[in-house]
Amino acid sequence: MRSFVTRGRVLLPLLLVFVAGCGAGRYPVTGQVTYEDGSPVEDGTVIAEATVDGKAVGVQGAIAKDGTFSFGGDRPSDGAIPGTYKVLIMSPTIPDGAAGEGKQPLVDGKYTKYDTSGLTFEVKPERNTFNIKVSRPKPRTKDKE
Prior knowledge:
By secondary structure, this protein is an alpha/beta fold. It is built from 2 helices and 8 strands, in the order H-E-E-E-E-E-H-E-E-E.
């Protein structure tokens, strides 16, 4: 019995340090990317960056078919460090020649740059929800010949 108690006194603090170190300082961020009409953006990536304690940090999350995403930094969905993030959205790459077939990015081009997206989000030391509304790209016009 004494051996079990002694081991518990040694192992419990080690276990607590290990658990606290996993994802320490990161908090869950989930959300959904939708168009103005409420329908989901079905693919792409939400990318965010911030400066926290003088260091640049970045997180990203893949957009699922239902428009949902969750931020991760070191690992997918492991959360984000608290701070104010600039956000952009990347559509999947359109293969060469597909643009000529009428294929377009999934979101308006303004969302692909931090400077023009108009998207920011503050990660707080708690569970965070960040829902994003975007506009579709403007229809392309064919060049007059």
